[in-house]
Amino acid sequence: SISFNIVMKGLCNAGNVDEAFKVLKEMEGSGCDPDYVTFNTLINGLCRVSRVEEGFRVLREMRGRKNCRPSVVSYTTVILGYCREGKLDEAVRVLEEMVESGEKPNLVTYNILLDGFCKAGNVKRAEGLFGKMVDYDVVSYTTMIDGYCKVGQTGEAIRLMNEMQAKGIVPNVYTYSAMISGFCKENKLGEAVCLLEEMRERGIIGKTFMYNSVLDGISKSGNLDQANQIFEKMLESGCKPNKITYTILIYGHCMKARMNEAIGLFHEMLQVGCEPDNVVVAALVSCLLKAAMHKEAKSIIHSLLAKGFSPD
RNA sequence: UCAUAACGAUU
């Protein structure tokens, strides 16, 4: 049944719950007993596609089966489903039902509720729960940090980041990502840059979107030298730029009339296989024309054609 | 073999 479970998980993750239920039928037909993992997988599949009620029903049906008692994972999965729908009251109700039936919530259960409260706009309630928890991990902290960042409380978020490290909990790429996008939204670019650096020093490879938001802020503030420097570090650290990264930088250089660098970036972009969209091309070409660099403008169009792209 | 956190970031 392990193989069946794996197939079902694949189907569920692809959003194909109904197919997964067909597999369940096949299992039963072939004398293979579904186990608690099978049902948990189905519950998760249903919750992922917003069929939480049905997921909850599957959980209840588990109670009638031998050796398939609903576990902490079953309940937690349903709680997650309700949290994602923003139905926190329902989520809490399931939690209570879980406790009544003798199943103890674990750290994952609490982490999910923390996130649910934060995402529902109730950071205070998340804070309350966080204060009552006895056990924390990097997810608990990152969830709260993200919650604070999303409501503009980066100071509180940083405080938690220090606190977690004092407890020996190490921030990971999720933690940095939450903090950095929080700082970027507040236009605290200096802080964002510092955290990017700290992250690299710790050997964590950042994600492209993290660099993009920092680069965007820095470019728009007109500090192209710094943007270029961060871009260098990004490449050195092994983080791959994408089309958006190049778009940000090309724009930035155009705005500062640094056309040769803009052109250089454009060619680099083509070389690494990023397809520029018409918006960047239009911006670049029109800037070149304004700067009376007609030859260069033409050559941009030619490079595009040579690569098989069609500029409109 | 099952459940949790960051990203719709460029125009």
Q: Would you write up a description of this structure?
A:
The protein is mainly α and 312 residues long. The chain is 73% helix and 0% strand. It has helices spanning 2-13, 17-29, 36-48, 52-62, 72-84, 88-100, 107-119, 123-132, 138-150, 154-166, 173-185, 189-201, 208-220, 224-236, 243-255, 259-271, 278-290, 294-306. Helix 1 packs parallel to helix 3, helix 5 (72-84) packs antiparallel against helix 6 and helix 10 (154-166) packs antiparallel against helix 11.
Shape by Cα distribution: globular
Q: Whole-number average pLDDT?
A: 96
Q: Sheet with the most strands?
A: none
Strand % is: under 5%
Structural class: mainly alpha
Total of DSSP H or I helical runs spanning 4+ residues: 18
Task: Output the radius of gyration.
Answer: 25 Å
Count of extended strands: 0
End-to-end Cα distance: 55 Å
State the assembly state of the protein chains. single chain
Helices and strands, in order, run as HHHHHHHHHHHHHHHHHH
Share of helix, binned: over 70%
Spans of 5+ residues with little confidence (pLDDT < 50)? none
Task: Write a brief structural summary.
By secondary structure, this protein is mostly helical.
Set out the fold topology.
Layout: H1 2-13, H2 17-29, H3 36-48, H4 52-62, H5 72-84, H6 88-100, H7 107-119, H8 123-132, H9 138-150, H10 154-166, H11 173-185, H12 189-201, H13 208-220, H14 224-236, H15 243-255, H16 259-271, H17 278-290, H18 294-306
Helix pairs in contact: 1-2, 1-3, 2-3, 3-4, 3-5, 4-5, 5-6, 5-7, 7-8, 7-9, 8-9, 9-10, 9-11, 10-11, 11-12, 11-13, 12-13, 13-14, 13-15, 15-16, 15-17, 16-18, 17-18
The structure holds one RNA strand of 11 nucleotides.
